[in-house]
Amino acid sequence: MDILIQVLTTAIAPSTAAFALAAIGLNFHFGLTGLLNMGHAGFMLLGMYGFAISLREGWPIWLAVLVGLAAAALFALLLGWPTLKLRGDYLAIVTIAAAEMVRFLGRSQSLAELTGASTGIRGSDFKAPFEELSPFADSMVEIGPFAMHGTRSSSWWLTLVTWGLVGVFALVFWRLSKSPWGRVLKGIREDEDAVRSLGKNVYSYKMQALVIGGVIGALAGMLWAIGNSVQPDAMGRPTTFWIWTLLLLGGAATVFGPVLGAILFWSGLTLIKALASAFIPSDVLAPTSLEPFSLVLVGVALMFLVVFRPQGVLGNKKELAFNG
Amino acid sequence: MADTAFETVAHEPGAAKPDAILVADGVVRRFGGLTAVNVDHFEVQRNTITALIGPNGAGKSTFFNLLTGFDMAQEGSGVFNGKPLRGMPAAKVARAGMVRTFQLTKALSGMTVIENMRLGAQEQPGENLARAFAPPLWRAREREITEQAHDLLHRFKLYEKRDDYAGSLSGGQRKLLEMARALMSKPTMVMLDEPMAGVNPALTESLLDHIVELKEDGMTVLFVEHDMHMVRRISDWVVVMAEGQIIAEGPAGTVMSNPRVQDAYLGSHHDTDLFEERDA
Amino acid sequence: MLGKLDRRVLLRAVAVFLVVAVAITVALSTGGSADAATGSAASGGGSSLLLQNLFNGIVFGLLLALASVGLSLIYGTTALSNFAHGEMVTFGAMITYFLATPQAVTFPLLPFEFKINMPFLPAVLVGIAIAVFFGWVQDKMIWSQLRRRRVGMVQQMIVSIGLSLALVNFIQWWMGGRPVRLTTSIDPRHQYGPISVGNVTLISMAIAIIALIGVAFFLQRTRLGRATRAVSDNPALASASGIKVDSIIRIVWMMAAGLAALGGILLALYQQGIGFDDGTKLLMMMFAAVTLGGLGHPYGALVGSLIIGIVAEVSTVWLAPDLKFATALFILIIVLLVRPQGILGRAERVG
After folding, report:
1. What is the CATH number of domain B4-107+187-267?
2. Residue ranges per structural domain of chain B
3. Which pLDDT tens digit goes with each residue over C157-169?
4. What residues of chain A lie within 8 A of the CB of B90, using their CB?
5. What is the ipTM of this complex?
6. How do residues B224-242 score in pLDDT, each as one tens digit?
7. Which helix (H) or strand (E) holds B25?
8. CA distance C330 to chain A (A)
9. Exposed e or buried b for every residue in C274-301, given b needs 16+ CB within 10 A?
10. Which CATH number fits domain A2-138+145-308: 1.10.3470, 1.10.8, 1.10.760, 1.10.287?
């Protein structure tokens, strides 16, 4: 019973919602357009830096959000401008390299006053303006079997905002993917030369998709930071790979794939850890080994998923997002 | 089936045409040290069917890519229907009215046949990101496009397949879909890159009829082809390339007895020759 | 249809370079404590420091080359960008530690511990042999199966990402989160002019150079090596001319795994210890090196590795040491923008 509540708590947690939102962003890139963005965590990290640093400097929260989004948009333009005309795997290499660059710069001592170096930015430096907006009580609130703080950090307030935004952007994805605009992107995913031969400016469409997905990723990064803190090393390559895993798990190019994928991924991890610590004796699997053990399973799951069910849970086998 | 427009045209490389829709001058494309295309002068007569033939490696496909904006030449210029082609990207060439198909068919497999068709249409306001959010701004145009697509699908005998994924079509049906999709933009000139390659013989006749129909509808056709049977059947004019240059022009019958052409084919060490029916 | 493609790409790259450089400079000047790294270094006697860093860069570049040559050969023969190659580097060092350490060791899920405590040199040889075997197993169990099923390249790349996640976490589970040292002996240092260098480093360099020459000899002078290059150039043609492409690829995987393991062992000696994710961190540098030199070009990996190594180490003369990888990646991005095919790569013919 405890395990069930633990799993359900993870399923509705704000961090899970933040990952769902990040995956919606990646879905614009990969699911809709076929762009191999291997540096999504870099967009998230830039978003949270822009947001947290602006707030720490005392700027209003709406401006802080805008700064975070603008940073990601600029990053997308800068990366896409030279690479979107080259072969697809160049975007993969450049995005992963650029995302790692952002992280190396963020954790560098040389920028310590701006970014807090490898320790990052503490929650208390930037969370207050968001928490002040909370309509919930400033104490622990129990709703059904779930107990969370009303306002602070990973709170009911943040839960409401994150899942609300997941809903909004799932709707945006649905509207756009079913529009003629989305049709052009799907065409590019299938074969960009064909779309070019039909008179569409492929470069411009890819750029639009890259910016939109990146900006949604940045928003997800901000929400994640409110629930945790700004931590450059939490936004390394593994994070990008997790987002890929959960997007493929739920089903790329589908509206609810990212949401379902995020819930399955994180509650699945919680379930594995809980079951392992309950049933495997600790001299066989030490508590410190639980994390790597469950991530080994994630890696293996990703391998099997992409080979045997690349369309994920919700996807359509005929509309596969894999080409070449 | 000679066209009267060619009565006054000389049977020589780079011959001037009375009403040229497409003109190219001094086009040079090099890859490293290799000159793939070196065409002094080239004209295509409006509302005719012109074939571009030549042995493998003659530079036909590269020349095709250069004309349609899919590749860039180091030197040269071109004019299509009064518009200079210099530096024009492929999408713009297509919007100007010159639409192409590909040797290896590019049906968009992960989309349905009808979505493939709709994608071919121009001037859909919903393809703009901001307007995509507001369906009332693009629904009307979408209905027009769908009607046009249905007409074309009937004509190309693909109507029953409209909701199937393009990936499930046969090779020949994909060729048909690609041609039909190109017509969605109501082009003035259609460029077909080996329209017969990989097509089941049962479909060949109807494909030929469709190409002849394009001319009857007022369009100009330029096609690259290995299948000499097809070249003889439908082309008004034949242009022969070898080693990147145009070596002969003329009606199908005369051009094939030209000694330079025969030399080019026999001299090129490969298995295609003029009298072979099909080249895989 | 006449294009100034090259110049446009160049302009773009220069513009990106300027924007990023200005952004970093502004950030550094407002970010404060930059003098911690730059000031002291610059005042500490310019040219000798430069020489020392140049030397360190060559050493790092040689070790990096051992790892990236395999990555490049795999890309060349199979077109796979193998994200799990970094773990092969860690694995080589870890298995050697596992064999040689006098401490008690175990495997995950085994409820007891045991000691192997082999002498160091045999441990290295057995470690490399195990890594080669692992390369064979990997290709046999995973990659050749995927090739046979005609699984797309993007999918295969994601499979390698999954494998990388699984392996790096397995190694952490197995060896724990703290770095381990292969030897505990103290390394005497020598001073050659302005350059100070340890014995172990000199030996590592010699081994790396010998191994790289061995690879070059294999590729140039042996039948198998020529067949490998043929597969790299054009798999279809190689197959048509009677080369058994699948066996060649199997050998390439074994070689790549062995070279990566050797690189990992030497790296562990050079930096006096290896952590469970050191190879994973190195992967970005390997990709940078391979792409920089020309994807799939075996000598490109060598050239690229040396450039990356030198850029990373020499940049510490002016920039903070924790920015050296960022600098190397930055150079990669810029080179890619100007010359996407890499330094030694050929421009692809389109159409």
Report:
1. 3.40.50.300
2. 4-107+187-267, 111-168
3. 889 999 999 999 9
4. 193, 196-197
5. 0.88
6. 988 787 888 899 999 999 8
7. strand B20-31
8. 7
9. bbbbbbbbbbbbbbbbbbbbbbbbbbbb
10. 1.10.3470
